[in-house]
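ok here's the first one, seq then struct tokens
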Amino acid sequence: MDSAPFLKLKHWQWWALVAINIFFLLAGQAAAVLLGRFYYDQGGNSKWMATLVQTAGFPVLFIPLFLLRPSSEASTSSTSPPIRVLALIYFVIGALVAGDNMLYSVGLLYLSASTYSIICATQLAFNAVFSYFINSQKFTALILNSVVILSLSAALIAVSDDSEGPSGVSKGKFLIGFLSTLGASALYALLLSLMQLSFQKVLKKETFSVVLEMQIYTSVVASCVAVVGLFASGEWKSLQHEMQGFDAGRVSYVLTLVWTAITWQVCAVGVVGLIFLVSSLFSNVISTLSLAVTPLAALVGFHDKMNGVKVIAMLLALCGFASYIYQNYLDDTKARRPETDVRESRDNSSC
């Protein structure tokens, strides 16, 4: 876990930023998933539109970007990398994000919700491998314990899902869905590690504005790719009919898409923020934790049933979350100890 850029912050300030980003990720993802479910329940069926709204809400991020811009001038980091390097990073990551979103859409189309969720939980295992080789992430017993417990929690929730899978799906399409979801989970884990590597080795900035810039510019690229796919596939021709046939009405159709786009951006800021503040593995652990939090939101919003298995899964997720948080606390204390010793020695020498 590399929190070196934030060692200048006070202990409680750093943890406050981490807590804020955890809230953004959990609340944003839960809301986005529920809105996405509402979209399909009310008659929406465009895969490319569902892909587009995951990144199309990036304009709202210009507001906090402009508010945080003055503080970014106080950064003591080295000169910014060349524009061509930044453009290449944003283009590659943005294109990968678009592909990842589409793979998830294809997987959910051909798999049942429970099978889909179980496969999605494998992103933690993929991220553990990528973090080890790309980000030099060290593993301890607490981290492994957290990964295992959270994976079991996600699997329990998936098994307890009462919804039935799509009917009429052939073995060939099932295989496509399985490979698409597995590939999307691996690609998502790779994206987190690549973002962390970009922050550490290329961007090297010490302000949160770099997090917003990363999210905005990659979302621009991903949205452009999704728009091209929307028109190339011909799905745009059915959007007007889809709006007219939306059970909740045209206004609700538009508002559903708008708020889905916004909540996905809130979630993405939390994801990228945790990568910048802590690590890609930590961000992925919190993302997996949301698989246990989302049923609570569904219980309130859609009156879903909360059985004993889901309660146990949520308790497991909280235990895994606490295990990882405690490990991060130990690492954070160890990282700050040399700086504290230096300050104490200076104070003693001045006396």
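and now the second one, same deal
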Amino acid sequence: MGLIQLLKSQFLSHLIFYYVFLASGLIVNLLQFCTLPLWLVSKKLARKINIRLCYCISSQIVVALEWWSGTECTLYTDPKNYPLYGNENAIAVLNHCSEIDFLCGWTFCERFGVLGSSKVLAKHELRYLPIIGWMWYFLEIVFCKRKWEEDRRTVAESLQNLHDYPENFWFLLFCEGTRFTPKKHEVSMQVAESKGLPKLKYHLLPRTKGFWVTVQNLRGTAAAVYDCTLNFRNKQVPSLLDILNGKKYHADLYLRRIPLELIPEGEAECAAWLHKLYQEKDSFQEHYTQKGCFPGPTVTHPRRPWALINWILWACMLLYPLGLLLVQLVSSGSILTILVSVTVACAASLGGRWMIGQTETNRGSSYGNKEVPSKNN
């Protein structure tokens, strides 16, 4: 292990990341609350401001992957479609095999300039989580309770509100609903067998209702569905803690552009279309497993400097007063004050680790932990 790698894995380095992220996130949340009156005057301007404010937070997480760990991302796609990426609204359907799938999705959003405006379908409870949850609330993220009768109406209303969104966005969807694990896969394939559906080897059975509602309510707003199949070289399974420790990975993303008008409008027909899509995704994963790459040409899209510049500016602004405070604490000689400061630092570290913990596999959906198959497909 080299010196730089050793420094990246140290608690103090992580503490600096946590501090900058938590402190800047709370400041951004405060600024977002200050935009509330503006929504009554100019909805378009309020949205544009919140897009920039949200970028200040989400780009810091991308910095951890792109610049801190140095993880490389290779894009497999049709060069003819490449100029459209980032210049149109799209629904991105991603597989869910690791803790950092969402982070890789955000990374490609960043490289195509739509990170600040992009959306996800998130659990309703997350809207109450400071920093990330509050940021998503002002970004008009679509929240769901995973109760179909309630979600059908609220999700549709949230999606329809995006028809006049002022900037291009990607709507990131994990149709499997939870991360792939052998136990969840076993239960999922039992469901597939009971419904007479073809079994999948590398994916869980997709949940079709959420996809259908998303497509129906974004017709005329989104131009295409991006079928995204992600994998990591050498069969690695990365985690967020590995990224914070500076461990480097290489992600490969296979992206197909499918015009939205090619997707059937009927619910049953759309569900059948999505199941077929996942059978194709399974074949792409099989190709990757056997040959170590996806089919088709690769396109190199370099990382942009703006996320790193954003983090450096926040770090300079927040670490300087912190340094002055620490000097004063040490010079004061007060044991109580020093102990309180150490306690606050540990709390900040635990807070950051707790947020990471919310993304771990064993904190995902309980799907696969019950004997009764899910009926939400």
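notes on #2: The chain has a mean pLDDT of 89. The radius of gyration is 22 Å.
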